[in-house]
Specification:
By secondary structure, the chain is an all-alpha fold. The protein has 8 helices and no strands. The protein has helices spanning 2-14, 18-92, 101-110, 123-131, 139-177, 182-185, 190-195, 202-246. Helix 2 (18-92) runs antiparallel to helix 4 and helix 5 runs antiparallel to helix 8 (202-246). The chain starts with a helix and ends with a helix.
């Protein structure tokens, strides 16, 4: 094909047909331009196809992370609500007949004093931000993801602060109570129980448990409000991502 065009150009120059040669030259230039445009279009199509592939992969990863966070959030809120109900049942005891200190202590020991470890699946979002590929995500979804990160950061800071306060109380309480299983082990050891002054320390133990559990209940109530905001945000983002994913599967 190229040989044919070279021969045609040479013949036109030889025959001194300049006007026809000029038309030929223009046509040749147009062919080159068209070829370049086609090549650019093919390159752009390939680049867009790769971007769409990368975008789709990020959508899937984000969706997986968000569903895990949704499950964790729902389970944590349910646990907080169970702890709150148990604490309210304990408070109702004070509306009844006079309470025996030992029974109060035993009831306090049935309440959950341990904190929930918080961890969110934010690796994909952080990877998008650090790599700059977050620009592949539509602006409305991107803004919601950043807002979700802010909520997660807020609750992690709050939980850390509240746990520090509660744990300090529990450490002080350990001086008088020992391990949580000590009292049950002392039931068959009256002399040791007397030596450790467990009954004498019972008022301090009850007050310490009261303070720690009240602190925990207050902090969980506060955390539950942020968790609900997080859950609402997660549900919206999941719905938006699922709609974007459907575009890849017409």
């Amino acid at each position: 094909m190229l040989r044919f065009f070279r021969q045609l150009r040479q013949r036109l120059l030889t025959e001194n047909k300049f006007s026809k040669y000029l038309l030929y030259a223009i046509g040749e230039i147009l062919l080159v331009v068209i070829g370049i445009l086609i090549a650019l279009q093919l390159d752009q199509n390939a680049e867009k196809k790769q971007e769409d592939k990368t975008r789709h992969e990020y959508y899937i990863q984000l969706l997986e992370d968000l569903k895990k966070d949704r499950k964790f959030t729902v389970e944590t809120m349910a646990r907080f609500e169970a702890d709150e109900k148990a604490y309210e049942e304990y408070l109702e005891l004070y509306a009844g007949p006079p309470l025996d200190p030992q029974k109060v202590y035993e009831h306090l020991m049935t309440l959950n004093i341990y904190s929930t470890a918080f961890s969110f699946n934010s690796n994909t979002i952080e990877s998008l931000r650090s790599s700059g590929e977050i620009i592949l995500i539509p602006l409305d979804i991107r803004n919601r993801l950043i807002n979700l990160l802010r909520l997660q950061d807020n609750i992690l800071k709050e939980v850390q602060y509240n746990d520090t306060g509660k744990n300090n109380m529990i450490q002080e309480l350990g001086i008088y109570r020992g391990a949580s299983t000590l009292e049950s082990r002392l039931k068959g050891q009256p002399e040791l129980r007397k030596f450790l002054k467990f009954d004498e320390n019972l008022p301090k133990i009850i007050l310490g448990l009261e303070s720690a559990i009240r602190w925990k209940n207050y902090s969980e109530t506060s955390s539950k409000n942020i968790l609900q905001l997080m859950l609402d945000e997660i549900e919206v983002i999941i719905q938006m991502l699922e709609q974007e994913i459907e575009k890849f599967n017409p």
